[in-house]
Amino acid sequence: MTKRAIGYRRVSTTEQGESGAGLEAQLASINREVEHKQFALLEVATDIGSGKNMTARPELQRVLELLAGGQADVLVVSKLDRLSRSMLDFAGLMAIAQKQGWAVDVVELGFDTTTPNGKLVVNILMSLAEWERETIGARTRDALEAVRARGTRLGRPANVAPQTVQTIRVLRSAGLSYAAVAAALNGQQVPTSQGGARWYGSTVKAVMDRAAS
């Protein structure tokens, strides 16, 4: 059965002329993804000059109502920061999508919650959102610094699974620190390049550096 998709694009007033975040670039990206995935594109909604808070975007709220009402199956965005720059907000949206039965496709990251890897990322994000709410204050900051300190003694990782690299990229794009990503991977028992289950902030950074090289 063909999935019904709604595209969403957003720019602030200052971003409208930037090629990477411009409306036309986002539309082209959404159209390519829809054609590649063979989705039925119902519409592409647009917010301009909207605030960082998702609730302050009228078109996004309208689209979410359509998805909640079962009038579409997938929300397609070109980049994660077009949808949310807050890990907590994004995790909250993923929880809603999971409960209501619709999917999110972030083109730039190859992140699609209809896939097994996408579902893994959702579980990690939701776990991290809960972790972030509960771990606050100086003791938490000290603990993260200790993790970073331990991680600096580790060597450069190699042979990390492609899906793990993609997961790390999504979590970093959601605003998580290297240490927080490491904690998330450990919590989900994602194996390291050596087959173990212990990640550190420095190993996550090394994976990102290697992927970018």
Report on this model:
By secondary structure, this protein is α/β, with parallel strands linked by helices. It folds into two domains: 111 residues, Resolvase, N-terminal catalytic domain (Rossmann fold); 85 residues, no CATH class. Helix content is 52%, strand content 13%. A five-stranded mixed sheet has the order 2-1-3-4-5, sandwiched between helices. Helix 4 packs across helix 5, helix 5 crosses helix 7 and helix 5 crosses helix 8. It is globular.
Helix content: 40-55%
Largest sheet: spatial strand order: 2-1-3-4-5
The average pLDDT value, as a whole number, equals 79
The DSSP helix count reads 9
Q: Shape, please?
A: globular
Strand content: 5-15%
| Structural class determined from secondary elements | alpha/beta
What is the number of E strands? 5
**CATH class wording of the largest domain:** Alpha Beta
- Spatial extent as radius of gyration: 18 Å
* CATH architecture classification of the largest domain: 3-Layer(aba) Sandwich
Largest sheet composition: 5 strands, mixed
Task: Point out poorly predicted stretches.
Answer: 136-140, 152-157
CATH topology of the largest domain: Rossmann fold
- N- and C-termini, Cα separation: 40 Å
CATH superfamily of the largest domain: Resolvase, N-terminal catalytic domain
User: How many domain units?
Assistant: 2
**SSE sequence, one letter per element:** EHEHEHHEEHHHHH
